[in-house]
Specification:
This protein is α/β, with parallel strands linked by helices. It has 7 helices and 12 strands. The strands form 2 sheets. Strands 1, 2, 3, 4, 5, 6, 7, 9, 11 and 12 form a 10-stranded mixed sheet that branches. The radius of gyration is 17 Å and the shape is globular.
Length: 232
């Protein structure tokens, strides 16, 4: 069976969020064929037992140790069968048509190498989900709070048209879809990044290879944020 999208989720002791995420995927209305891969980074909260009970079709990879985000994603990406790989955080809930909208955006733009969703806070407000690529100057500017005056290290996303995709530098990895062919061209995530910044590196490599990164506001995803890292 031809698989259009492989959804890859990395889980670490976030059982309840993971179950809600999987439920939101199941609620999507789409003609696209998709598969789901959950990589468990040595959780201790019986996450995968619950997944087996409620979602027996989900592919599971259980790591005996916490490999971090990049390395765990690579385990699933290397086995995935889809034409598109959707990196999705377990603390997300998809809104209607979130999946299909990302695929359509990539199909309609021949220059697109990655597409990310509009992320929402749990209260429905806009969450920052894409940024200019960092430089030493921009990071210094940001840490001095000068970005509040002239935004060089961030985007003023609240001013953007939420009905049109937009070319950006870096897309947050909470909801990031990339054609499998792009991974074959630029390589997988760099496991040297244990947690955070790995998608900055990946987005940068995609752009350097001549592709564009798209923010797709029609694809909406609630993101609770930091549910795994706040445990450590």
């Amino acid at each position: 069976m031809k698989i259009d999208v492989s959804i890859v989720i990395i889980s670490y002791n976030v059982r309840d969020f993971l179950i809600r995420c999987l439920e939101s995927i199941a609620a999507q209305t789409t003609q696209l064929a998709y598969e789901i891969w959950v990589v468990d980074n040595a959780s201790s909260d019986d996450s995968m037992l619950k997944v087996s009970e409620k979602f027996p079709h989900v592919h599971q990879i259980i790591s005996p140790e916490n490999k971090g985000f990049a390395a765990a994603n690579n385990l699933a990406i290397s086995q995935a069968n889809g034409n598109y790989i959707w990196l999705l955080n377990p603390d997300t809930e998809l809104q209607p048509d979130a999946l299909e909208t990302l695929v359509l955006a990539l199909q309609e733009d021949p220059k697109a190498g990655a597409a990310g969703s509009l992320l929402l806070n749990p209260n429905g407000s806009l969450q920052s989900s894409c940024y200019p690529f960092p430089t030493l100057f921009k990071e210094t500017w940001r840490m001095l709070w000068l970005d509040k005056i002239i935004p060089l290290a961030s985007y003023r996303m609240h001013t953007w048209d939420q009905n049109q995709p937009r070319n950006v530098d870096n897309i947050q990895g909470a909801s990031l879809m990339i054609p499998a062919a792009i991974f074959r061209q630029v390589g997988l995530l760099d496991p040297g990044y244990f947690m955070y910044t790995e998608e900055v590196d990946l987005n940068y490599r995609i752009q350097k290879a001549g592709w564009q990164n798209l923010w797709v506001p029609q694809s909406r995803v609630i993101h609770y944020g930091g549910q795994s890292t706040r445990q450590s």
